[in-house]
Design brief:
Layout (H helix, E strand, L loop, with lengths): L1 E2 L5 E8 L4 E8 L10 E6 L9 E6 L3 E3 L4 E8 L2 E8 L1
Antiparallel strand pairs: 1-2, 2-3, 3-8, 4-5, 5-6, 7-8
């Protein structure tokens, strides 16, 4: 667990089966306010073949915006956001 820049306690779990990688990101949000942008981002420094950074991003206002072949799904349940990222 770690604290975000907005003082949310965030948990993140990764899973790699040798071919694919997945992440589950979870944080408390008692409001689930649609007027506020909630989201998650994972930064991979210098991960692209050309040496540039890669960012996987999910947002309540903008939906999913990320690099090629990355999928995401999100659900707000019991006052927590749960976001799953993966490359298949």
């Amino acid at each position: 667990m770690f604290d975000s820049a907005w003082d949310h306690e965030v948990s993140m779990v990764g899973l790699n089966n040798g071919t694919h990688i997945y992440f589950h990101v979870r944080w408390a949000d008692a409001t689930n306010s649609l007027s506020e942008d909630d989201g998650a981002a994972i930064l991979f420094e210098e991960a692209r073949p050309d040496g540039t950074d890669d960012v996987w991003l999910w947002s309540t206002l903008y939906g999913f915006s990320s690099s090629f072949a990355v999928s995401s799904a999100a659900v707000w349940k019991d006052d927590y956001w749960n976001v799953a990222f993966g490359v298949a």
